[in-house]
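Sample A.
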Amino acid sequence: MRLQYLIFYFTLGFMFSRSPCIGQADRLFYDAVRTEASGDLDQAINLYLKASALSHSANLHGNLANLYFKKEQFGHSILHFRKALLMNPRDAELLANLNFAYEMANLPRPLQSFRSTYFSANFLSFWIIICTIVFWFGLFITFYLLFFKTSKKTFLYFSFCWIFGFFLCCFATNLSLKQKSELGREIISHFPSIDNNHSTSIPLRRFAGESNSANTNILPGESLIIQLGNDGINKSFQIADGKTWYLAKSTDGKKKGWIREDEFGWIINPNS
């Protein structure tokens, strides 16, 4: 009888633990789908963006990417295709659409693969769980073998396998963590919403601020890496108008300069 009560309360807890923000995001998502079907692309984009502020999914970012593509805002389109692939890296259609967006933006396809590997950022949670399981399982078996006084050979053999397996899991976790850390500093350039595509390129300035000359220019959709300061934190500077500027470098290291916060999008939002 107690087991039935436990199951009942667990089910209730699971149902009511669902965040109200997620429910609101779902409503916004379906409103956006209906608005898109009616032909109002701008309003559909606004609704998708509101939904993405509450929750994320590959479908949501994929739909956003397609809408931006239709409006020929390829920087925004590439950004959201990258976000969608991060959540669903095995989707061949998303990958094909991303490559087509790069082609339309007159950008070369990146050398790195967006396909998921067992050591990519997508598998970080998996490896953390595996490390935890291997550690506690090995510790339990170790105490078990000690308690029942098994042979020294058996104990040493198991200990070696346990330590070696745990080391491999930690190594895999570190690789995934490193990739996620690098991805957390990668940004995709795009035109600000107020620009309306009147420009053809985005300047990387010598110093933070509109009044400074451009060090070089980049196209919307190019990948950049935010540079770190001496304190290990993203190098940024906020000027008098309240806008924050970031020091960024192209993935090939050939272009470097300051970019304004509304001229790019994070693949992984640092505040999420």
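Sample B, a different protein:
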Amino acid sequence: MSDISPKGRTLVNALGIPGILLMIWLGGIYFSLFITVVIVLALKEFYSLYHTKGIYASLPMGVVGSAFFIWFYYTEPYLNMLAFIQLAIAFVVLVLLFELFSKKVNPAANVAYTIFGITYIPMLLGTLIALRQIDMTYGTYYTFAVFLSIWLCDSAAFGFGKKWGKKKILPRVSPKKSIVGSIAGLISTFIFFLILKQYSLPSIDFNIQDVFILTIITGVFGQLGDFVESLFKREVGVKDSGTFLLGHGGVLDRFDSLILAAPLTYFYLLF
């Protein structure tokens, strides 16, 4: 996440969290359209980061690639690998042909960043759609769980880190993230999943193995997703990916923790 003001954080949370929870509850086309908007905005921010380096990834191709993956996750939530590979190959060919006629400088870098942006955001974050589409019970339950645990981890890391975080965990990448904050985030997710185990629906069969694995996915890989985005921002010398969300920076800043946690949760549930 970006370094944000408490007032801005409170306002966006008060308006955004209920809306996101409603989209998860509705599922289907409503949740998928919501994630589509998030993906396109986040992808636009990511591509814009590298304009200062003379790299101009193709946003139109990014949108096309996003549409491919979103359609795939919506219609094939159980992951048809052959169709997935065919889709990926077709998209790479399309990007190469588009760049051939674009007349932009740095064509190799443009192609590389266009394809990487697609794999980094739509391919990974788009698994939220597949996760929610699996079925009405497991899909709904686990989508709620991954969002709530990520939010709890972020809030605990922010609060404890701000008050007691002296030693930084990875100052080269994110100077304000502390060891205390990261541990607090991990513990909070563990407690959250323990409570979930105690009060889960009978049909879910949520056990202690799920508690530990999902704690690692959201409490560890969720925070690593945050660090990965910070790494890209440090490379280009910016604090936030954008200014779309009051107090939160850009859309990518707000959803970065889900970029690794979402696909790992999806694959854990699927396999």
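Observation for Sample B: The first helix runs from residue 6 to 26.
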